[in-house]
């Protein structure tokens, strides 16, 4: 018997929090959304429930606390009834987990550094981003969604490519993807962002653009620190 | 006892197609003798009682097969199941538990929340605990001291989570134990080489006991890397890092 009462601690503009929201909506689980103002300060609630990482999303399910977006996704899939988010076949599950790790571990840094760095270094990262996008596009295999006819785990995990990528391009003036490049990914992005379950929990584009524009310096600093690591 | 099969030979009475099918059905593992990630996978296969063919890679001269099976990362371990490759040790561990659900012990618990916790601690080990430990081992002076302090801080979090249990998973080892397991022999090697104790009894008694429980478990003690050879390798790695920063 699962505990009732689902709350999600998120933050405007966080693709990681968005992942958790989409999953809850796909399952038809009612939830209360609590928004953090991460650029200002972290709430006591967040610090209490995620003392180790102090990050969003945090899923509160009765007296249970679950952190880390990929962990939250699989929890939502397993704890609640409703349409499956993960595939059922063990090999297929291994494949989507592999690509999720690829996205979070291998793509995040070059993506970040390709927009926020400069000069020769930037060229290298741009090249890497394109290689990564090619690998991801190949997983689409001409399907409507990575999961097939409807949205699944990998679609959710790759959400930032669907919505955040063009906003960041606009905020930074760095074009990562030319208009004729990666047509399958473009098509998928349109499908994802226009989906009736996804749309309500996507951050408003104009507001997201304003957010990145306002915090350009901060992101440049984060990128600089990343480069030095 | 479980042995790795280093080569595959088939009976002459099987037809070519049967041989190919049987060959494809054999579980294969591409590995490297010192890789802790490979050992995690091997222990998991042994928990499940799965026979596998082991292929030792020369990481300085990677085989065409490895590059074909793991073109994205070009790393070990790679598990081949029914001719299909799976890479990334965390992914492989969950796959092993699911593909052989009814063989041997479960590696992940049944309850969704317990599963989420196990996955959380695996990530903690990888993203939060490993980096400062590695930094502590590959640096010196102030940088090393800072890394040491950071490592101890994360170990204390882990100590609290373990809380005197025999294994992270309870009475029997599970996903988190397998994932953190290599620390049980790597940390003592690092301590010997640096001359500094990282896991002290007064501060981390549960972890110290866990390391012992893990190393002495029937699955693990049957299959560990050659320690002398590993120690020399670690020593060489530390020296190379220190040279590079001077």
Distance between the termini of chain A: 46 Å
Rounded mean pLDDT score of chain A: 93
Describe the main β-sheet of chain B briefly: 4 strands, mixed
Strand content of chain A: 5-15%
Q: Helix share of residues of chain B? A: 55-70%
The count of helical stretches of chain A stands at 10
Secondary-structure content class of chain A? alpha+beta
Oligomer: heterodimer
By DSSP (H or I, 4+ residues per run), the number of helices of chain B equals: 11
What is the number of E strands of chain A?
A: 4
What is the overall silhouette of chain A?
globular
The span between the termini of chain B is 48 Å
Task: List the defining traits of the structure above.
heterodimer, A: 229 residues, alpha+beta, 4-stranded mixed β-sheet, B: 246 residues, 11 helices
How does the SSE layout of this entry go?
The complex is a heterodimer of chains A (229) and B (246).
Chain A: E1 6-11, H1 15-27, E2 32-36, H2 44-49, E3 58-61, E4 64-67, H3 69-79, H4 90-116, H5 119-140, H6 153-157, H7 159-172, H8 183-194, H9 205-214, H10 216-228
Parallel strand pairs in A: 1-2
Antiparallel strand pairs in A: 1-3, 3-4
Chain B: H1 16-25, E1 27-31, H2 36-47, E2 52-56, H3 64-69, E3 78-81, E4 84-87, H4 89-99, H5 112-138, H6 141-162, H7 175-180, H8 183-194, H9 205-216, H10 218-221, H11 227-245
Parallel strand pairs in B: 1-2
Antiparallel strand pairs in B: 1-3, 3-4
Helix pairs in contact in B: 2-4, 5-6, 6-9, 8-11
């Amino acid at each position: 018997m699962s505990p009732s009462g689902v709350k999600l601690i998120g933050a405007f503009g966080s693709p990681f929090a968005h992942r958790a929201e989409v999953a809850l909506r796909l399952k038809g689980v009612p939830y209360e959304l609590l928004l953090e103002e991460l650029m200002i300060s972290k709430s006591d609630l967040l610090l209490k429930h995620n003392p180790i990482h102090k990050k969003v999303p945090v899923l509160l399910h009765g007296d249970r606390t679950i952190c880390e977006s990929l962990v939250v996704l699989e929890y939502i899939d397993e704890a609640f009834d409703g349409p499956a988010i993960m595939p059922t076949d063990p090999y297929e599950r291994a494949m989507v987990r592999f690509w999720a790790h690829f996205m979070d571990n291998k793509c995040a840094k070059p993506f970040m550094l390709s927009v926020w760095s400069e000069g020769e270094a930037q060229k290298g990262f741009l090249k890497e981003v394109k290689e990564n996008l090619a690998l991801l596009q190949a997983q689409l295999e001409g399907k409507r969604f990575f999961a097939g006819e409807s949205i699944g785990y990998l679609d959710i995990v790759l959400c930032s490519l669907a919505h955040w990528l063009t906003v960041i391009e606009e905020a930074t003036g760095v074009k990562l993807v030319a208009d004729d490049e990666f047509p399958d990914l473009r098509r998928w992005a349109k499908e994802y962002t226009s989906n009736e379950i996804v749309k309500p929990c996507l951050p408003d584009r104009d507001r997201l653009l304003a957010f990145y524009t306002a915090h350009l310096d901060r992101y440049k600093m984060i990128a600089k620190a990343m480069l030095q690591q | 006892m479980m042995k790795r099969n280093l080569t595959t030979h088939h009976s002459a009475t099987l037809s070519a197609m049967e041989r190919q099918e049987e060959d494809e059905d054999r579980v294969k593992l591409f590995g490297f003798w010192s890789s802790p990630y490979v050992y995690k996978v091997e222990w998991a296969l042994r928990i499940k009682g799965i026979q596998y063919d082991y292929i030792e890679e020369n990481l300085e001269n990677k085989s065409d097969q490895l590059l074909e099976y793991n073109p994205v990362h070009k790393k070990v371990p790679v598990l081949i199941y029914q001719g299909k490759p799976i890479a990334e040790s965390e992914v492989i561990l969950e796959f092993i538990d699911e593909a052989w659900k009814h063989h041997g012990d479960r590696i992940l618990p049944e309850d969704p929340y317990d599963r989420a916790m196990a996955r959380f601690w695996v990530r903690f080990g990888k993203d939060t605990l490993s980096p400062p430990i590695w930094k502590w081992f590959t640096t010196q002076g102030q940088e090393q001291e800072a890394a040491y302090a950071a490592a101890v801080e994360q170990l204390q979090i882990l100590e609290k989570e373990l809380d005197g249990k025999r294994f992270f998973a309870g009475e029997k080892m599970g996903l988190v134990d397998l994932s953190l397991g290599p620390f049980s022999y790597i940390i003592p090697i690092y301590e010997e080489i640096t001359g500094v104790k990282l896991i002290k009894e007064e501060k981390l008694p549960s972890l110290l006991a866990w390391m012992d429980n893990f190393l002495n478990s029937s699955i693990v003690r049957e299959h560990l890397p050659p320690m002398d050879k590993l120690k020399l390798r670690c020593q060489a790695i530390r020296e190379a890092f220190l040279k590079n920063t001077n």
